[in-house]
Write a structure and sequence with these properties.
CATH superfamily: Luciferase-like domain
CATH topology: TIM Barrel
Distance between the termini: 43 Å
Strand order of the largest sheet: 1-2-3-4-9-10-11-13
Order of helices and strands: EHEHHEHEHHEEEEEHEHEHHHHEHEHH
CATH class: Alpha Beta
Number of domains: 1
Radius of gyration: 22 Å
Number of strands: 13
Strand content: 15-25%
Structural class: alpha/beta
Shape: globular
Largest sheet: 8 strands, parallel, barrel
Helix content: 25-40%
CATH architecture: Alpha-Beta Barrel
């Protein structure tokens, strides 16, 4: 069996997926404004042979539940939310191999500035940066960015295709290979004939500029994406190197993975040019009884109101309008369409607010695994075998306890079975994940942006 990719999933916030659990006395997530917190976090993950730390992000606030953001403010539902990119240099300074996936919203990020930020981070980390490409799900985010309403769902991916075309031109085409000379005697830093202005005049974006950064180790960061709609998967098949999927059914995840790989082949890529990671929350004990006791303790700290506020924002519907045991109905909007489809028209029947509050208290829409070390290892291996995923995007519950449990209990057991590496390989994040070069190669569209001179 192939070795699994291990990615830690978090946000630069307090209430991430397990809403209300920050109230647990052992949780340190309220220290998010301390660089020491993030550096300790990164060192723990590298000790546990994690490949990446994936920092999710959102623009806007969860203000749909009850028609306001009161529940989100009370419960700390992804509010406050810090910039995920700022702490990366600190974490990189205390690690050598851990990669960093940083979320950036292409609808709101200006291409020139975002390209500079990511290239700078790629330099500062020695080529360990990835970009989680998102288009946003919160209407409040559109208003925060000066727009009256969200760009329609599928059009956001049309914007994405043009945005990526422009970013490839900036990262791959502005500076030729060998442009940087560093010739002190001649006083020649770079060859002007090998540095090109990027001129783009498209439907959504315009730019005329040279990329302000010299080429970074990867040039284009590792491209990550989590769109689950048909249009989102088509976008991923064209651009993404890693795709994140959610769900608790092996059959549905397997079908999703097969669809993503089929679409990648349709774009001229190989099926496994796209790595697929399943979102998971793991509670492990030395015995099953200990794990179940931990889970029960965490549930006692969960906030049903905060869970529903989080779900309302993602779905774009006010769940406070529903009686607790009334099934929610499908409503077309421009928020998370896949979540709406799954929670209203899934094979398990429509969810009620009570069911959402109970089943999503600890893991949101991620897979939840609770058990002894052996049980967790067997379940993870079974998911790998039956779904063709490449690894897991594992969300924290209590920081650092649940992450430390993974590092000290689960990872050694996975290593004994040959499912997780014992040592890191050298190189950039792309080289570590794919065993290939630091730069994207054909048939990926980024390769087409390079100068032929």
């Amino acid at each position: 069996m192939k070795q699994m990719i291990l990615s830690a999933l978090d946000m630069s916030c307090v209430g991430f997926l397990a809403q209300g659990v920050w109230t647990h006395p052992a949780d340190r997530s309220t220290e998010l404004n301390s660089l020491d917190y993030w550096m300790d976090y990164a060192k723990l993950l590298e000790k546990g042979m994690f490949d990446t730390m994936f920092l999710a992000d959102t623009i806007g606030s969860y203000d749909v539940y009850g028609g306001n953001m009161d529940a989100a403010v009370r419960g700390g539902v992804q509010l406050p939310m810090n910039d995920p990119s700022v702490v990366v240099s600190g974490m990189a300074a205390v690690t050598k191999h851990l990669g960093f996936g940083i979320t950036g919203n292409l609808v709101y990020e200006k291409p020139y500035l975002f390209a500079r930020r990511m290239s700078t981070l790629d330099h500062m980390t020695g080529g360990r940066v990835g970009w989680n490409i998102v288009t946003g799900i919160l209407a409040s985010g559109a208003r925060a960015m000066g727009q009256e309403k969200m760009v329609p769902h599928d059009e956001r991916y049309d914007m994405g295709d043009e945005y990526l075309e422009l970013m490839y031109s900036i990262w791959e085409g502005s500076w030729d290979e060998g442009a940087v000379k560093l010739d002190r005697e001649a006083g020649l830093f770079a060859d002007p004939d090998k540095v090109h202005k990027v001129v783009h005049d498209g439907k959504y974006f315009r730019m005329e500029a040279v990329h302000p950064c010299m080429p970074s180790p990867q040039r284009t960061p590792v491209l990550l994406q989590a769109g689950a709609s048909g249009r989102g998967k088509q976008f991923a098949a064209t651009h993404a190197e890693c795709v994140f999927v959610n769900g608790s059914s092996k059959d549905s995840i397997a079908a999703n993975v097969a669809d993503i790989r089929r679409r990648a082949v349709g774009q001229g890529r190989r099926p496994h040019d796209v790595k697929v990671l399943a979102g998971a929350t793991i509670i492990v004990g030395r015995t099953e009884k200990e794990a179940q006791e931990k889970a029960a303790e965490y549930r006692r700290h969960a906030s049903p109101e905060a869970v529903l506020a989080h779900a309302s924002g993602g779905l774009g519907i006010d769940l406070s309008r529903y009686p607790l045991d009334e099934p929610i109905r499908y409503e077309e909007n421009d928020s998370n369409r896949t979540a709406m489809e799954n929670l209203t028209r899934g094979k398990d029947g429509a969810y009620t607010p009570r069911r959402i509050a109970e089943e999503m208290a600890l893991s949101a829409r991620n897979l939840l695994i609770i058990g002894s070390v052996d049980q967790v290892v067997v379940e993870l291996a079974d998911w790998m075998e039956k779904t063709d995923i490449d690894g897991f995007n594992i969300a924290r519950l209590i920081m650092p306890d649940t992450t430390r449990d993974l590092v000290e209990l689960v990872v050694p057991a996975l290593q004994e079975r040959g499912l997780v590496k014992r040592d890191y390989s050298d190189g950039t994040l792309r080289e570590k994940l794919f065993g290939a070069g630091a730069r994207l190669e054909a048939p990926h569209p980024a390769a087409n942006a390079r100068s032929q001179s």
